[in-house]
Each structure stands twice: as structure tokens, then as C-alpha cells.
Amino acid sequence: MKPQPLPPSLAETDYSAGWRRLAIVLSLAVLAGALIGYWYVVPRTAAWHRVQARPMSLEINGPGLLDAINRVVVTSRIQGFLKSIEVDRNDSVKRGQVLARLESVDLINQLAVSEAEASAAARSINEAESERSRAQAAFDKAKIEFDRRTVLARTNVISPAELTNAESAFKQAEAEMARAEAGIERARAQLLAQQANVKVLEAKLAEATITAPLDGVVISRERNPGDLLLPGANLMQVVELSTIIISARFDESARSAIKPGQPARIRFASDPSRQWTGRVLRLSRQVDQETREFTADITLDELPEAWAIGQRANVAVEAQSPAVAIGVPEAFVTRRDGRAGVWVAQSGRAAWTPLALGYTSGANIEVTRGLKAGDIVLAPAGRYSFEPIDLGVEVP
Which of 7, 78, 111, 252 lies at a 20 to 30 A Cα distance from 342? Predict the structure, then answer.
């Protein structure tokens, strides 16, 4: 059976629909071509920056804690019960000011006994010297008698027995004389021992009064009156205000860039809206084996009113790069998939390049890997891969 021809009205309708579809496809193709031409043919004007190697002022950041170089833990050198504590936390103290007192009645009594014994030892010296004078007189008499009888014995005026008796009396007087001398030395030694004991007890009695070792502020107090204070036990802590510092930590890679005297900016966690200034005082010669960080002491030009030992801070040291470095404006750095990078002009088109970054330097940031001197980086706003670029305003 032969197919029946379509009615003229239906054939014209299909023919018109086909032309319309073709027109839409062609329109879309022209639009896509125009867009592609616009995106990949027509250059876009972009701000740019030429990378140069130069010495850079680096801003090296690190966490820190408020500390003090002269921070003293006040203790007692003797054991005793606390009789009184004269100062409290936050009190200012002067060197030599009384901080606390220990019960000292036993020491006072021991000192009185020792002083009495020293006085008795001094009198014993007088007695021993009197005994020596008596022995000296007996010795002189016995010597004269022995010499006289020796002469008489030579002329046979006296018998040998009488000479022997005189010689025996002389030797006995000589022995008494030596014993008297030894008694004096013994009495003097006893006096020295008692005087030394007096000094020891006086020192202990003085140690019952605990005084401030320096000018400063009491930052803690660990005991109360009536407590038993053992030698070495923590009574209180005193810090010298002029030695308060920030102990900051930095990565070991910054060791050659940070030097004493460089300016620093400090922000405390308790008041992050305010900035404090200071300078690097000294650097540690030791690197932590786990964190690979070293410490630097930062002095403050002005101490915060609400300071507290141990409070956290963030320190930014203004250092110079040890050698020429490459830096780019920080505003030109963007991120893709968590990686930092910049748009670089290559053969008139934009290409995204990942970077390894170092320290910030004002509005710039150091680039340790990814760029070389002479590269042109582009402002990142609106950039896409292979975009044609027409260089506009150079950003210094």
C-alpha cells in the first residue's frame, strides 16, 4: 500500500519547526563562539606586579608568654611556724623589707645560753692566765734553786741527793708551766667555739625574719600565719618590674634573621585591640628538639596595666632578610584547593602558579619557592586559566 501524502498544512508546519530549531542551534553556536572569543581571544586589562629579588623587611610572628628575668621564689632557710606575713599579693616591696616572721622564742633562748657560755669561756681565760702566773713564779723559784744547788754540788758542799731533789722540783715546775700554757690555749679555743656558736644562732635568729631579696611586686603567696614552713618551701614569689619580658617562640628558620635590638610589636590575648611596642633583648642558643623552635626575650617599652606573669601574647618582630628575597603583594596571593598561589602572565595569558610562602613584610609576603625575578604576577580578581591579558597599571 502506498503511503498517503501529508496534508499541505502539516508539511508546512514541520518545515517551519525544523528551520526554527536550526536557527536556535546556530544562534547558540554563534553565542558560544562569541563567548569563547570574548574569554580566550579578547584581552582583559589587569593590574600587575613585576617580581624582583631585594632585601626585605620581614615580619616574623610567634607566640609568647609574659615572664620576668628576675623572678624570685622566697623561701626560708630554717624550719619554723609562721608568726606573721607582712605583705600580700600585688604589694610592692623594697629590697630588705620584712616579708614574714617565724616563731623564734627557742632561738632567742639558745642564743642567750650560748652568749652566757661565751662569757664563761672568757672568764676561764683569765683564770688560766692567773694559773700560768702562779706556775711561772714556781718555775722561776725552782730554776734558781736548781742552778744554785748545781754550783754547790760541783764544790761538794751538798750531797748528790740534794741536787737530785732540786732537779726534780725544777722539772715539776716546768711541767706545771706547760700545763698552764695549755690551759690558756684550751680556754681560748673554747671561747672561739662559743663565739662561733653565738654567730650561728644570731644568723638563725636573723633568718627567722624573711626579707625581700629585691625591689619588686609580690605575684603570689602560698602560706598563711600558723603554717609550718620548711626550708626551701615556697612562701611567695617576687618579680622585679624592670626585668619583665615576653618570652617568644619562633621557628628555627628565623634564627639568622632575628637579632638583638630589632623592634617588635606585641598584642596580648587579654586585649587584642591594643598594640604594644618593644625590642629584642636576647636570643636563646638552644632549639627545642620536638617543636624545632627557639626562644627570644622581648623587652616592653611600656608595661600593660593589667599584666600578669604567664599571660599569652603574639609577637611580631621586624627583621631583615639575611639575603635578597622575592616578595609579592599579599593582595595578589589567592588559594586553590587549600594551596597558596598567584596568577602569572605567561605568553600573554594568565596561568595559576602554586607558591611556598615565607614571612610577611608590610603589604608584601616573602616567596620561598614558585617565582623568579622578572615574573609578572596579576591581580587575582576575575582571573581564569589561559585568559588573554593586557597589562594595565603596575602595582609597586
Answer: 252
Q: Are 218 and 91 in contact (CB under 8 A)?
A: yes
Sign of CA dihedral 36, 38, 40, 41: positive
pLDDT at 88: 92
- Determine the Cα–Cα distance for residues 98 and 84; give it in Å rounded to an integer: 10
Using alpha carbons, list the distances in angstroms from residue 331 to 24, 52, 310, 335.
43, 17, 35, 11
pLDDT band at 268 (very low <50, low <70, confident <90, very high): very high
Which residues, in sequence order, are CB contacts of 70 under 8 Å at separation 6+?
A: 214, 216, 239, 240, 243
What does the pLDDT look like over 2-21, one tens digit per residue? 555 545 554 555 556 666 77
Query: Contact 59/359 with Cβ under 8 angstroms?
Result: yes
Residues in the chain: 396
3-state class percentages of the chain: helix first, strand second, coil last, to nearest 5: 35, 35, 30
Burial of residue 220 (number of CB atoms within 10 Å: 0-12, 13-18, 19+) = middle
In this structure, are residues 318 and 311 in contact, taking their beta carbons and an 8 Å threshold?
no
348, with CB counted inside 10 A (0-12, 13-18, 19+), is exposed
162 in the Ramachandran plot: left (φ > 0), alpha (ψ -120 to 50) or beta? Answer: alpha
* Nearest to 246, CA basis, from 293, 280, 285, 219: 280
